[in-house]
Amino acid sequence: MTLHPGDTVPTFTAVQDAGLPxxxxxxxxxxxxxxxKTATTHCQLLACRYQQLHDEFQRLAVDVVGINGDPRxxxxxxxxxxxxxxxxxxxxxxxxxMLFGVxxxxxxxxxxxxxxxxTFLLDADNVIMQAWPDRYPAMDAQTVLExxxxxxx
Length: 153
Prior knowledge:
The protein has 5 helices and 7 strands. By secondary structure, it is α/β, with parallel strands linked by helices. A 5-stranded mixed beta sheet has the order 3-2-1-6-7. Strands 4-5 form a two-stranded antiparallel ribbon.
């Protein structure tokens, strides 16, 4: 299944890197950004840019959530390295990657398909308002923030 703007994202269950169940805050918009690997500088840059703009997203009542398939201990190390204050969702079984249609091919030397960098803006009713495939890490957070501002969330 691949989701596109205008589609409603089905309710899904996921576990945060802290080991707690992820529960979206009712009535709030969300940015879901998917990234392939915690141990890459591009993914670290992407996550850090979202952290730099996190307070602005919060002022606009938009939650930021990262999604990645690496093991929880790798995600926790990534969180500490990038000093993140938003949740990272575990997707080791690739359920979210399949749901959003973002799985690419395995990287050299790996058997597991990695997700492509993609970002989705969801409204309070879980409708995808906008999607950005194959994102450039340095500009993604700013681009999404500008889209949020343009929609007067």
